[in-house]
Amino acid sequence: MFVDRALVVLMTLGAFWSPLRAADRSVSCLLHSACVLPCPFDPGPEVVIHWLNPPESSSPVHSFYHSKDQLGHQQQRYRGRTSLFKELISKGNASLRITGVELADSGRYKCYTSTTKGNNEDFFSVEVQAPVLEVSLQQEEERLLCRSENIYPRPDVNWTPSPEPLEKPLTDITSSETGLFSVLSSVPLPQRPLEEYSCNISTAYSWRSATYRRNPEIRLSDSLTVPCVEVTAPVKSLVWKFNHKKTIYNKTGTNQTFSDFWSDFVDGLTKSNGLALKDLTLDQLDCSPVRSPLTLRHSL
């Protein structure tokens, strides 16, 4: 009798699915990482679990009954990538773990659970993201070029301060064969003294920024503070670089380091994460950020 119930449930899940439902639970998964879809249920004897994507599919993402996994009808692309928390099933936990998350794993999932006490359905809206990890900002001739790649979903790009109408950014957002997006955006190099530009690239899940500033000439032994682009949320990581390549300062969480070459000339950071320089010599000025572009990368 138990065998019949399990098989009938598997074959008729799609046929009895109804569009009338409670709001889906939203789950965000990182590309190429592991992701867990939580599904609690009222525990009882003769547990049957079916995960489906889409909900009306006749081939499961993962199935469990007869006290073990049943993967004979599993969708091909999920093979070897799904698992349940076996030790927690008897306690009412049917959560699904997916490894090596792919963009194709996005979509609507159904978690069907059944015991002798009854059955239940939960629905999930899964979105896969590849966050903005790096923004490169470089000067090429008379333009500033901003680049980033391997992003999902499609990112937004903006420059601050906003260029004048006649200096509208040239932005190209392309999608590769893998579905990931790359960004190339440029604006004319600012000409006014102390002018600065920040290139900001964001999705609904992530944000990165790089800042270019042309600094004034200073006298020997003068101090100089290079301001940081203002952000309203706490900064988790912060990197100051010289000429886009050499790291001056790096902060991740509570850990912070200064490069040996710059340590004697850095007076620290301001409360707004600006870079304070001191005691600059002729040798230092020859390769200091007052003569060359200084870039900033930070994340929330």
The name of the CATH architecture of the largest domain is Sandwich
Overall number of domains: 3
Radius of gyration: 27 Å
CATH class wording of the largest domain: Mainly Beta
Q: How many strands, what sense, and barrel or not for the largest sheet? A: 7 strands, antiparallel
Beta-strand share of residues: 35-45%
Number of helices: 3
User: In what order do the strands lie side by side in the largest sheet?
Assistant: 12-15-16-23-18-19-20
pLDDT below 50 for ≥5 consecutive residues: which ranges? 1-20, 285-300
| Strand tally | 23
The H/E string reads HEEEEEEHEEEEEEEEEEEEEEEEHE
The CATH homologous superfamily of the largest domain is named: Immunoglobulins
Please describe what this structure looks like.
This protein has three helices and 23 strands. The longest helix has 11 residues, at 2-12. The chain has 300 residues and is mainly β. The strands form five sheets. A seven-stranded antiparallel beta sheet has the order 12-15-16-23-18-19-20, with no helix packed on it. The chain folds into three domains: 2-129, Immunoglobulins (Immunoglobulin-like, Sandwich), CATH 2.60.40; 131-209, Immunoglobulins (Immunoglobulin-like); 215-300, Immunoglobulins (Immunoglobulin-like), CATH 2.60.40. The model is unreliable at 1-20 and 285-300 (pLDDT under 50).
